[in-house]
Task: structure prediction
Amino acid sequence: MLPEYRKKTPEEILEEIERLKRGRLKVYIGSAPGVGKTYRMLQEAHELKAEGLDVVIGLIETHNRKETEDLIGDLEIVPKKNIDYKGRLLEEMDTEAIIKRAPDLVLIDELAHTNVPFSQRNKRYMDVEEILKSGINVLSAVNIQHLESLHDIVQQITGVQVRERIPDSFLHMAHEIILVDVTPEILRKRLSEGKIYHPSKIEQALNNFFTASNLGALRELSLREVANDVDERVEKANEKNGKNKPSGINEKIMVCVQHGSNAERLIRRGWRIANRLKTELIILHVTNEVSMKRSTENRKKIQDWKRLAIQFNARFIIEQIKKRHIAKAITDVAKEHDVTQIILGQSARSRWEEIRKGSIVNMIMRYTTGVDIHIVSDQQPRRK
Result:
């Protein structure tokens, strides 16, 4: 069925004309310094220049990283302007010179930067806004901790109060957001090798901002932010075309694990499904064990599952059964977290036990609607 035609108002027509005149903004977003945002920007700049586009650098922060400095190559750099502040000459990006130069594309690093006091505009993202208004396309970069809405969360995670921030609305108006993602282990290795900060700052950084837990949490924030952005763009596109939001865009996967040889295999299978769908993974363990009374073996298994959960950016939940049937406990968690797909291992019960006590799968299906259930076969022989 074709969407109903609606005549645009004069205001909507003017807004569309202005939007068409604007330059396009593409932002590389990362979880922390050193993930490779600037490097990726420069790579793309060379590719676009090779295709015939007029590309210039408005401002690039190499942080004295040789690989990044070497990649600038023959790209034209618009000279910075000098600003006198309290008797000192400080350098800032020359927005007006970029607009006058009028390239097809300009690279502008450190989107959240605060300009020198008494500059024409307070923040670099405001300079970018002016450049976009002039019809010039912009390639930029920012770290997730600079997003305004995440300020309190980032401070809670890292203990660091990030002062330079950009509004969420500015990031969301970008035509494209690209996540530059590396694991915490790789990022810490880069830092240790002196590829991010000066050697004198490495030890302090490793023990403060660049801890594995901080980087893991910031990485999760980045992944979620980009995933949410994709969801919003798809939703807007479908609304514009008169279509309903497609099913599956907000899928959520939950893997149920018990003490047995199949648990880690289930988790890996769940991650592959979640990764394909670019969605969240939940790992659930339902138990009647009190934490203090767990055996050493069971404690180790739970630690192994938690390790995998961290590795796969999954949420790990231990649910006390509390006199419920295990199937009811599973479906209660699924409903609470809006799970759309449940992954289970093949039941260890014998056929006679299933006849006598009932099938867990059948009970889950009875308790839920609209949830797909995947059964992963066990590598161990099933009891007769």
In short: The chain has 15 helices and 13 strands. Residues 1-5, 350-356 have pLDDT under 50 and may be disordered. The domain at 252-376 is CATH 3.40.50.620 (Rossmann fold).
